[in-house]
Write a structure and sequence with these properties.
With about 80 residues, the chain is mainly α. The chain has one domain. The protein has 3 helices and no strands. Helix 2 packs across helix 3. The chain is elongated. The mean pLDDT is about 95.
């Protein structure tokens, strides 16, 4: 899916670059992008909740990523901190 702020030409050029990557390089890129997204989400949680300590921010991120049902099943005793 093309981002709203990206031209069709730029999007096609980016896809062409991705298609030329070896499978291992694609996996490494996807892993880096996933970690970057995780760090951005965690930074947003810390900005919205400056009183959260590192563990609290991490649990808020887990709740955000997993949703309430899976989060409660995985950590039944954990507080449901707002992300």
């Amino acid at each position: 899916m093309r981002a709203a702020d990206t031209t069709r030409e730029a999007h096609e050029a980016q896809l062409a670059v991705f298609r030329r990557l070896a499978p291992a390089d694609r996996l490494a890129l996807a892993s880096r992008m996933s970690e970057d997204a995780r760090l951005l989400a965690l930074a947003g949680i810390r900005a919205r909740h400056p009183g959260y300590g590192p563990a609290e921010a991490e649990f808020a991120l887990r709740r955000f990523v997993l949703g309430d049902g899976l989060f409660a099943a995985a950590w039944p005793g954990a507080a449901r901190l707002d992300p």
